[in-house]
Amino acid sequence: MKLIVHDLPEEQVKLILPQNGNTRLIGDDGTIHPCIGCFGCWVKTPAQCVIRDNYGDMGKFLSKCEKLVIVSKCCYGGFSPFIKNVMDRSISYCHPYFTIRNGEMHHRRRYENHFDLSVFFYGSNITEQEKRTAEDFVHANALNFDCQLKEIKFASTADSFRGEFK
Amino acid sequence: MKIALINGSPKVKISASVVLLEELKSLRSSDCLVEYGFHTSFLPQAMNLEELAQQDAAVFAFPLYVDGIPSHLVSCLLQLEKYFIEHPSNLIIYAIVNCGFYEGIQNHHALEMMKNWCIKSGLKWGLGVGIGGGGMLLGLQSVPAGKGPRRNFSAAVIELSEHITAKTSAEDIYISPNIPRIAYKIGAEMGWRQQIKANGLSKKNLFRKL
Fold first, then answer.
1. What is the CATH number of the domain that holds A131?
2. B184 and B202 fall within a common domain
3. Domain assignment of residue A34, yes or no
4. For every one of its 166 residues, what pLDDT tens digit does chain A have, with 9 covering 90 and above?
5. What's the confidence (pLDDT) of residue A19?
6. From the candidates A31, A76, A135, A149, which should be mutated to test the interface with B, based on the most B CB atoms within 10 A?
């Protein structure tokens, strides 16, 4: 399964993103709650976020996916609030125990799948410094989720990515 | 000096960010401090942005979430950017980011994002402090500042405070706890087992898959 997490409006989704049975689209339906840092997804309802809105099963979705595609406005070299919210709500994908990866402490895997990660940043005034921050940040994400980073692209508008998600 | 202390943790009451800000406050008793809690995606309703803009310095303290700034705080920064573009300020921004990993350097990306926010908002960047082993901080509240396992945390806060006094910009400071990494790992994992048992589950539930 391919998982596409995006912050695009509905009209742009229809033009840019694939609509087929093998792809799950995670977009902003206006109901997402922020992570409250309770770690309930590790110690109360393991593998599942305690907040039962439409984004409480991100860990499970990640465990079933082969490709994770993120389409996000670039904010200061990171994700937009909605995309970051989805990622913050995804830590149930990981196990709370630690392991050492690349000489640094990271979380142990809960699941066996190793998905591919592609990130498409858009924004009308992304600076070169923000691009460098974003590249380093996505590399860190890939290390933390223990996935393979396939590509990071930048464009001034999301429309530029049309044709990238087949 | 007039200093704004901004708690960017989603936790309203006690958090590692609060512990760090309290330690900084104890060093700034002769200053005029104003405190804000950015606990949701919206700036506090009663917040006076003009008051914030008139401070000499602002110190953000927040936890690292998935290598970056927590989503609710990104929302707040976007709202502040709009204000500061229209209302230029001489504020100097400092930030303390803590993470549950041992290595303080893992907060680097979040601090870079804060610097990028300063550039977009026309504000001066002071420096950032990246704290590793943030998971220990709540358990160290009864330990006197600067003593025992609190030593490295306190040293970083003191250095930050000196830069705030001098209104200087400097290289970021990264610290890890002054206990071995393996001890931190063992302690943290024991903590997860205790917590899941306290919730009426067994330790094997930590490994649950869906």
1. 3.40.50.360
2. yes
3. yes
4. 999 999 999 999 999 999 888 999 999 999 999 999 999 999 999 999 999 999 999 999 999 999 999 999 999 999 999 999 999 999 999 999 999 999 999 999 999 999 999 999 999 999 999 999 999 999 999 999 999 999 999 999 999 999 898 7
5. 86
6. A76
Same domain, B111 and B145: yes
Q: Are residues B153 and B185 in the same domain?
A: no
Verify whether the Cβ–Cβ distance A105 to B102 is below 8 Å: yes
Q: Which of residues 46-65 of B touch A (CB under 8 A)?
A: 63, 65
Is B79 in the same domain as B161? yes
Which domain, by its residues, includes B90?
Answer: 2-179
pLDDT in tens, B137-155: 999 988 998 898 899 999 9
Q: How high is the ipTM of this complex?
A: 0.96
Interface test with B, best of A7, A52, A68, A75 (most B CBs within 10 A): A75
Q: Please give the backbone phi and psi of residue B130, each rounded to the nearest 5 degrees, phi first.
A: -105, 115
Instruction: Say what the pLDDT of residue B86 is.
Output: 97
B192 and A34 in contact by Cβ < 8 A? no
Mean pLDDT calculated for residue range B96-125: 98
| Total domain count, chain A | 1
Contacts of B176-183 with CB under 8 Å at 24 or more apart are B176/B102, B176/B103, B176/B104, B176/B132, B176/B133, B176/B152, B177/B102, B177/B132, B177/B133, B177/B136, B177/B149, B177/B152, B177/B153, B178/B149, B178/B151, B178/B152, B179/B133, B179/B149, B181/A105, B181/B102
Identify whether residues B42 and B124 lie together within a single domain.
yes
As to burial, measured by CB atoms within 10 angstroms (0-12 exposed, 13-18 middle, 19+ buried), residue A142 is: buried
Q: For residue B11, which residues of chain A lie inside 8 Å, CB to CB?
A: 36-37
Nearest to B71 among A34, A47, A97 (CB): A34
**How confident is the model at residue B145, as a pLDDT?**
87
Cβ neighbours of B109 in A, within 8 Å: 77-78, 133, 136-137, 140
> In total, how many domains does chain B have?
2
Name the CA dihedral angle for B43, B48, B53, B55, rounded to a multiple of 10 degrees: -110
**Boundaries of domain holding A144:** 2-161
Measured between CA atoms, the residue of chain A closest to residue B40 is A34
Is the CB of residue B203 less than 8 Å away from at least one CB of chain A? no
